[in-house]
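Handout, section B. The chain below has 150 residues.
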Amino acid sequence: MFSTVNGDEYRYDFTTSKFRIAFEFLKRSDLKELPVGTIELGEDVRALVQSYETKDEKDAFFESHELFFDIQFVAEGREYCGICSRSGLAVRTPYNEDNDITFYEDPPLSGKVLMSEGSFILLSPEDVHKPCLTAGEKCKVKKIVIKVPV
């Protein structure tokens, strides 16, 4: 899907109703109280409510998805999310269609985004990411990952 802004063409249209559904959900005042599990939001958009302890980098892997965008929202805690383009990366575990996931070897260069309470990151299929990483000391994180179909 493509959209145009000021004559520039973009690969994805983030103004569709699927993205509006996702961001409307994130306006809820009870996100911290939601139980762990999956919430169907409509138009094949779903929210995965997660609770976990952050990981050391050596215990996590870069991943990507083909069929969904990830909107990762931290409701409680903090973590780093590693990020890079998937172009030229070595595949660690081939694409698993049932789970819509490919794992990659660590690239020679990548970045990190500090995710703190109330922050989010939107990841497209081209954005390889390594979520759940310890930022400072290990801590418990409550995160909502909204899966938006491509």
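Note. The CA atoms of residues 28 and 80 lie 24 Å apart. Compare this with the example in section A.
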